[in-house]
Amino acid sequence: MDIRQLRYLAAVSEELNFGKAAGRLNIAQSALSRQILLLEEEIGTRLLVRHKRSPVRLTEAGVLFMAAARSALEHFERAELVGRRLGRGELGKVKIGYVASATFSGLLPASTFAFRRQWPEAEIDLKEMESVTQVSALSGGEIDIGFFRPQPSLPADLSVIPLLREPVMVALRKDHPLARSERPIAAADLAGSHFVVPQTDDEVGFSRHVAEIARQGGFTPIYAFHVRNFIAVLSLVAAGLGIAAVPASLGCLQPADVVYRPLADCAVFAELTAAFRRDEQSSAVRNFIEVITRHSLMP
Q1: Domain 3-88 in CATH 1.10.10.10
Q2: pTM to 2 decimal places
Q3: Residue 203 has what pLDDT?
Q4: Helices 3-15, 29-43: inter-axial angle, 10-degree rounding
Q5: Where are the domains of the chain?
Q6: CB pairs under 8 A, 24+ apart, for 7-14?
Q7: How confident is the model over 131-165, as pLDDT tens digits?
Q8: Which residue in 75, 177, 224, 225 is a FRET match for 56, CA 20 to 30 A apart?
Q9: Would you place residue 263 in the very low, low, confident or very high pLDDT band (cuts 50, 70, 90)?
């Protein structure tokens, strides 16, 4: 017994005529009759009363069987519809990891909004994670897409889309001597400053941007605090515990006691990327990747 035979029986029970049912199903009448006979043989009872001079009708057993068959067909059609929608990415779940600064640039919110507008019934799960953690989470299937800062190396099974390249600025407490003027700050003037940096891995965190500023300014950086994210960075800057190198997009946050100043004589840039598995099979995830590509601010 298969779903096709149930559909054939349903058509005959509605049309009460093999010829009309065969035309509706776009098959030969003999093939239709054969499939109904095979179904009757399999379940061990007659389902249809056949007379040459009168319409075909269901037997008592056929009425009972057809009621159950219609329910099965409805369930199958619903499952079939769900399967097709999953295949188009209209349904499904997209698990996203992100560094907090990805929200400040507007790329993650914009991509999420655009995706939800086009596929409102797809589910999105967002989880803040450090860049290094996202890489292992991608390979392990814990997340499907990661928004993070560029890594020195990535597994071969991951693809990366560059999203954003923005200048690094300096965040200072508003009464800091270097904050008195709104002019850009020379890198050398930051010598002796205590820096607050997010993330604990000096290889991939913002401490490398501090190191580059120090290199161009001709001094050795002092890392006073390593904290979890840029919100904590700004809190410590506001407390007067140090200064920070931050992406320009962080300027959307305006704590009362913190100001931002550009660098005058050194070009240091922060980048943001999105990564995903090369062999991704989920249509919903692939749809989100397409949205990310459209929203990338890189040429």
Answers
A1: yes
A2: 0.71
A3: 47
A4: 110
A5: 3-88, 93-163+272-295, 165-269
A6: 7/73, 8/32, 8/35, 8/36, 8/39, 9/36, 9/39, 9/47, 9/48, 9/62, 9/65, 9/66, 9/69, 10/66, 10/69, 10/70, 10/73, 12/36, 12/48, 12/56, 13/48, 13/58, 13/62, 13/66
A7: 888 999 999 999 999 999 888 889 999 999 999 99
A8: 75
A9: very high
d(CA 137, CA 143): 6
How far is it, in rounded angstroms, from Cα 135 to Cα 138?
A: 5
CA distance 261 to 299: 26
Tokens matching residue 87: 């295949």
Same-fold call for 93-163+272-295 versus 165-269: yes
**Residues 66 and 7: beta-carbon distance below 8 Å:** no
At residue 260 the predicted structure's pLDDT band, cuts being 50, 70 and 90, is: very high
Instruction: Tell me the one-letter amino acid at 55.
Output: P
Q: Which residues of 66-82 are buried (b: 16+ CB within 10 A; e: fewer)?
A: beebeeebeeeeeeeee
Class of domain 165-269: alpha beta
pLDDT of 166-221, one tens digit each? 999 999 999 999 999 999 999 999 999 999 998 755 445 788 899 999 999 999 99
> In this model, does residue 1 exceed pLDDT 50?
yes
Give the HSE-up count for residue 184: Cα atoms under 13 Å, Cβ half-sphere. 12
CA–CA separation, 214 vs 220, rounded Å?
6
Estimate the crossing angle of helix 29-43 against helix 18-25, to 10 degrees.
100
Cα–Cα dist 258/169, whole Å: 12
- Strands 54-58 and 244-247, sheet pairing: unpaired
